[in-house]
Amino acid sequence: MVAGEASGDLLASLLIDGLRQRWPDAPSMGIGGAQMQQRGFEAWWQSERLAVHGYSWEVLMRVAELLGIRKKLRQRLIAHPPSVFVGVDAPDFNLGLEEKLREAGVKTVHFVCPSIWAWRADRVEKIRRAADHVLCIFPFEPELLAQHGIDATYVGHPLAQVIPLHPDRAAARARLGLPEEGLVLALLPGSRRSEVRYIASGFFKAAALVKKALPAIKIVIPAVPSLYDEVCRIAAEAGMKDKALIVKGRSHDVLAACDCTLIASGTATLEAALYKRPMVISYSMHPWSWRLMKRKQLQPWVGLPNILCGDFVVPELLQDAATPEALAQAALGWLRASQDSPATIEALVERFTALHHELRRDTAELAAHAIEKIIAPPAA
């Protein structure tokens, strides 16, 4: 298995749970993170080694290292073929590896369909060459892949099982030391250093404007532990270090506790939707990276909640539009609605609850069953 970043580590750990139910003694190895290793996974390299972002210079600096890791892994797996190789997300790394392994006779599964419906339609042919089977986390993906001759199974989104249908806001606030009453704004500027660099400053400046309009509001930020000091520095530069609660990790507690979140586009936006929280989705990156990404966009939405609902159910403020003033006004719209227009918030909660039910499946069981059919297909 190869899993990149924290989200891939979570997906892969759930998959290991499902596989262990069928094959209790089956070893797993490759590239993985802490949650996988807690389940007995043998990590030859850590997931964090694959974490890159965008198209800028930082990716170019890492490309030789990543290609070297992929070559060593490919040679090792071809020399000692596994029963099946599972690439968990990280398509830029995994699809090329899967293609070479499949050519060598190794069965390959790709877990999480690349976003061919949002950004990368050009990846369809690569997926067809690379994967014997694709495990999909969104319900519309298997049919889309079938149109291109790619076998796939919808296994649900594992976060829909992890996150409760009815989050306990009061309990989450108690765990964070926040008052049970009053408004709370959460800032989630991303989990990568490059994201924090481009997004966090605007979020903190927006939070300062919200704080000026609503002095009693609490501001809370769940910082990735490795980026905690950098987040604190950026908060200080924005004059917000002493006006905000910055915690290490605990993003789910923060989302459960808040009334609204300013949030970087990515998996965290789906987490916020599953917590039924109003949000303002934003993203900023290097201008060159943005121009390249913008040309590849296939839908009018960027945020997962909007893509899955097929509508702008929450605002998106991207790149040049993501000014502190615009972000603050959008957040204030939700925060004031929570006090003055509860029907508006309730309508959003109902939309997100329906989405939660649609995504809630026994992901570990369904994924393991699909992999079992790849390893030992039924006799004709």
Automatic annotation (TrEMBL):
Q: Which UniProt keywords apply?
A: Glycosyltransferase, Lipid A biosynthesis, Lipid biosynthesis, Lipid metabolism, Transferase
Record's SUPFAM superfamilies? UDP-Glycosyltransferase/glycogen phosphorylase
Q: Supply the enzyme class, top level.
A: transferase
**Catalytic activity reported:** a lipid X + a UDP-2-N,3-O-bis[(3R)-3-hydroxyacyl]-alpha-D-glucosamine = a lipid A disaccharide + UDP + H(+)
Q: Which GO terms describe its molecular function?
A: lipid-A-disaccharide synthase activity
- Which InterPro entries does the entry link to? Glyco_trans_19
EC code:
2.4.1.182
So, what pathway does this thing act in? Answer: Bacterial outer membrane biogenesis; LPS lipid A biosynthesis
Q: Name the family the entry cites.
A: Belongs to the LpxB family.
User: Which NCBIfam families does the UniProt entry name for this protein?
Assistant: lpxB
What the protein does comes down to:
Condensation of UDP-2,3-diacylglucosamine and 2,3-diacylglucosamine-1-phosphate to form lipid A disaccharide, a precursor of lipid A, a phosphorylated glycolipid that anchors the lipopolysaccharide to the outer membrane of the cell.
The protein depicted here goes by the name Lipid-A-disaccharide synthase
In its UniProt entry, the species of origin is given as Comamonas guangdongensis
Question: What would be the name of the gene that encodes this protein?
Answer: lpxB
